[in-house]
Amino acid sequence: EKAHIGVTGLATMGRNLARNFARRGHRVAVHNRRAERTDNLIEHFSGEGDFVPTYSLSELVQALERPRRLVIMVKAGPPTDEVVDELAPLLDSGDVLVDAGNAHFEDTRRRQAALAERGLHFVGSGVSGGEEGALEGPSIMPGGSQQAYGELEPFLSGIAADVDGTPCVAHIGPDGAGHFVKMVHNGIEYSDMQLIGEAYDLLRHAVGKEPAEIAEIFRRWNTGRLDSYLIEITAEVLAHTDAHTGKPFVDVVLDQAEQKGTGRWTVQGALELGSPVSGIAEAVFARSLSGHADLREASRGLPGPTGTRLASTDIDGFVDDIEQALYASKIVAYAQGFNQIQAGSAEYGWNVDLGSVATIWRGGCIIRAKFLDRIRAAYESDPQLPTLLTDRSFQRALNEAQDPWRRVVSRATSMGIPVPGFSTSLAYYDALRAKRLPAALVQAQRDYFGAHTYRRADIDGVFHTEWSDDRSEYEV
Ligand code: NDP
Q1: What is the uppermost EC class here (predicted)?
Q2: Is 182 a catalytic residue?
Q3: What are the Cα distances from residue 51, in Å, to 5, 19, 43, 48?
Q4: Cis-peptide into 67, omega within 30 deg
């Protein structure tokens, strides 16, 4: 009997995806470049289901029923191309090849187009949830043809996370749509983490709480509207004590955050699209800044404010203010991310359903949160919503949050505690609200030095002023 689905690349993610398929009753052909991983999977997990070990890509292809469904889970970048190039001549028209790694969406577009010429379906699929998600139920974001999705759907909906009976998988759109949405997911994840980091920093250094007390505050927040995986693990980390020193664990970790690059891709992509994801950008830059040890060391002697801690009577109120600032900034981060998806969808003609993106992010993935139900509801009631900020329920939340949010940003600033995420989110909110922006002056400056012209607010047309002459205006 042939296998129903195949997986090549049996490192952490691929092995767990293969196990997940097998646990759902599928016969799974497995392959890895180095045979050890294949043997290891069979040795340890063959009892979980029906695996077919194979030791070459041609053997893998031969083991599969047709049309073939084959998942690639190898290191993103050139290794994926190597595997795709070796597989393509072995496959037959109508076969479905899934790249479930973290590919850049432009690479996925290129691969999809090349394989389509050979009559093969290429599906670039985002998978989020890390090691545990891959095994227990990830959030899956496949992009590719509708027909290919039809072939995969019964398999993917079986292994995906499940929220209230709805699997966390949906056809995102053609070619690179799935990997694009996964990329923005990771960008939002950077934002979420940075904002939580800032809330912690304020609780620690403005309010003066200890990590164990802050863990309790996050636990409490996790029972309310901030309920999410990232808040939950934050409480766990803050409550943890280092075994070597007996100090709070967070105090012994080097304060330099690393990155693998999907946050950077999100910002690069946003710059190309002209999509202002300032919260995500600040989160990516905050990680870069943290890594510049020399620069930080050289700057340590720079003067800071002479401010003191909060008065003890203000403490409880300020803790609540921080919760409000965190929630409001989170709304902005998601609003920016969803707008970037909207912009990408328009640019590439993907027709992405934003409500369905929110739906499949409710479980399995790193940014899973109660909050996403609200986003889903927002796009369900108005699929054309220009920004989440104007959704009725978010507008109410922002209305309530804005004063505390301003207090938090101004208090942090006067105490010299950096809150790039909170402050850029607030600036975004205020800029969108503003009746007039100083962009008028910027455009006038551009016309002054570069004759870049301007439009008037009162009369149609494009104009230029003769700045170096008599300053008369003419229409160009
Ligand atoms: P790695 O990214 O560490 O990749 C290791 C796997 O790639 C091994 O199976 C390795 O084979 C294979 N490989 C590397 N180079 C080649 C090549 N030239 N030809 C064939 N195979 C090759 O594994 P992960 O499981 O961590 O991740 C797999 C994919 O999933 C990546 O694209 C990653 O970005 C993505 N991802 C990872 C997540 C995570 O939490 N780790 C979360 C979501 C997505 P060998 O054993 O022979 O060296």
Answers
A1: oxidoreductase
A2: yes
A3: 10, 9, 11, 9
A4: yes
Task: Please give the structure tokens belonging to residue 236.
Answer: 């766990």
- Per-residue pLDDT at 366 exceeds 70: yes
Rounded distance, CA 262 to CA 420, Å?
Answer: 20
Rounded CA separation 411/318 (Å): 10
pLDDT, residue 307, reads 67
Nearest CA to ligand 1 atom 29: 101
Whole-angstrom Cα distance, residue 430 to residue 291? 30
Positive or negative, the CA dihedral 262, 268, 269, 271 is positive
Give me 168's structure tokens: 């966390």
Read off the pLDDT of residues 110-128 as tens digits, 9 standing for 90 and up.
999 999 999 999 999 999 9
* pLDDT at position 89: 97
Has 330 been annotated as catalytic? no
Catalytic residue selected from 189, 198, 282, 323: 189
Residue 140 vs residues 137, 208, 333: alpha-carbon distances, Å: 9, 41, 21
In the structure, what pLDDT confidence band is assigned to residue 311 with cuts at 50, 70 and 90? confident
Q: How confident is the model at residue 310 (pLDDT cuts 50, 70, 90)?
A: confident
- According to DSSP, the residues that pair with 254 across neighbouring strands are none
The tokens for 259 are 């990155």
Cβ-count burial of 36 within 10 angstroms (0-12 exposed, 13-18 middle, 19+ buried)? exposed
Strand locations in 87-147, DSSP E? Answer: 96-99, 121-128, 139-143
CA-nearest residue for atom 15, ligand 1, is 79
Q: Whole-angstrom distance between the N-terminal and C-terminal Cα of the chain?
A: 73
- Sign of the Cα torsion 16, 53, 178, 140 reads negative
Determine whether the annotation assigns residue 129 to a binding site: yes
Copy the structure tokens of residue 127.
Answer: 């998978």
- Mean pLDDT for the chain overall: 97
Which residue among 7, 8, 10, 13 has the greatest number of ligand 1 atoms within 8 angstroms of its CB, and so is best to mutate? 13
Does 446 carry a binding-site annotation? yes
Residue of 209, 20, 48 lying closest to 129 (CA atoms):
20
CA of 332 to the centre of ligand 1 (A): 33
pLDDT at 309 over 90: no
pLDDT in tens, 314-365: 888 999 999 999 999 999 999 999 999 999 999 999 999 999 999 999 999 9
The active-site residue out of 59, 131, 151, 182 is 182
Range scoring the smallest mean pLDDT among 150-159, 272-281, 306-315, 341-350: 306-315
Ligand 1: residues within 6 Å at CB? 9-14, 32-34, 37, 73-76, 79, 82-83, 101-102, 127-128, 130-131
Structure confidence by residue, pLDDT tens digits, 71-108 = 999 999 999 999 999 999 999 999 999 999 999 999 99
